[in-house]
Structures are given as C-alpha cells and as structure tokens.
Amino acid sequence: MPPETTAAAAESAPASAGPTVLVQFLTLGGADVDLYKHRFETRYLPIGRPYVSDHVRTVDGFRWQCRGCGEVGQPALFTTDYLPKELAEARTHANSHASACRSKPRPSGT
User: Fold this and answer.
1) Of the ranges 36-40, 76-80, 93-97, 102-106, which one carries the lowest mean pLDDT score?
2) Spatial distance between the Cα atoms of 47 and 37, rounded to a whole number of angstroms
3) Which of 14, 34, 51, 88 could form a cystine bridge with 45, CB 3.0-4.6 A?
4) pLDDT tens across 15-39, in order?
5) Phi, psi at residue 31, to the nearest 5°?
6) Residue 103 — φ and ψ, nearest 5°?
7) Nearest to 61 by CA among 34, 90, 33
8) Calpha distance 10→18 (Å, rounded)
9) C-alpha span between 61 and 90 (Å, rounded)
10) What is the pLDDT of residue 17?
11) Percent of the chain at pLDDT above 70?
12) Within the chain, where are the H helices?
C-alpha cells in the first residue's frame, strides 16, 4: 500500500447528495470541474508531503473531479487526495485541467 492515502469515506465523486463543492471551473467543452472537501486517511504527517508516519490518521482535505471526462485530481503518485494544507495546489490543478479539457457535460443518468 502506498504511503499517501487509503480509502476512509464512501464519497469518491461529487453527486447530487454528495459533498459540498467549494469551487467550480468550466472546461472548454462546458463540463464542470468540481473542487470539494474530502475526508480520507493518510500516513502523511501534519507538516505534509513527503513526511510519513507509521500511523494512519484521518484528515479533512480536498479532491477535484471533472464532471465531463471523469478525471480526478492527482497531487502525487497513487493518490487523488489533497492534504488540508494543499488547497491552493488542488485549486491550481483543477483549474489547469479545466483549461485543457475539451470534455462536454455527461448526459443525465451517466
């Protein structure tokens, strides 16, 4: 198992009754890229990457997902979760994806 994260919550993608979106970006094709709070388990120390511990802790970090192509943010190898101190990085990555993605919004029900 990688040192970054393990699954801690059932929320893997924003849904109508899912997590609250903090920021939305728009892809070139018109799909939303949602940046939202995400609770997960990590071995990273509170000071952040690359410092790891032998113990797993639960943190309230961030995640983003493109509602068109489905891509999920990836700040480091083997993880899609951003640590609590990485909001600026998550925002930058989500915005960068939106500025290059040509995906249109997915049809309803998919």
Assistant:
1) 76-80
2) 19
3) 51
4) 456 788 999 999 999 999 999 999 9
5) -85, 155
6) -70, 140
7) 90
8) 10
9) 10
10) 63
11) 83
12) 87-100
Mean pLDDT of 5-9: 41
**d(C-alpha 63, C-alpha 73), whole Å:** 6
Cα 25 from Cα 108, distance rounded (Å): 19
* Sequence-ordered list of residues with C-beta below 8 angstroms from that of 26, at least 6 positions apart, any chain: 32, 33, 98
Query: What value does the mean pLDDT take over residues 69-96?
Result: 94
Whether the CB-CB separation of 66 and 31 falls below 8 Å is answered with: yes
Say yes or no to pLDDT of 6 above 60: no
CA dist 28 and 86 (Å) reads 25
Q: Which of 39, 54, 65 is nearest to 3 (CA)?
A: 54
Would you state the structure tokens that stand for residue 95, as one six-digit string? 């915005």
Give, for 65, the enclosing helix (H) or strand (E): strand 52-66
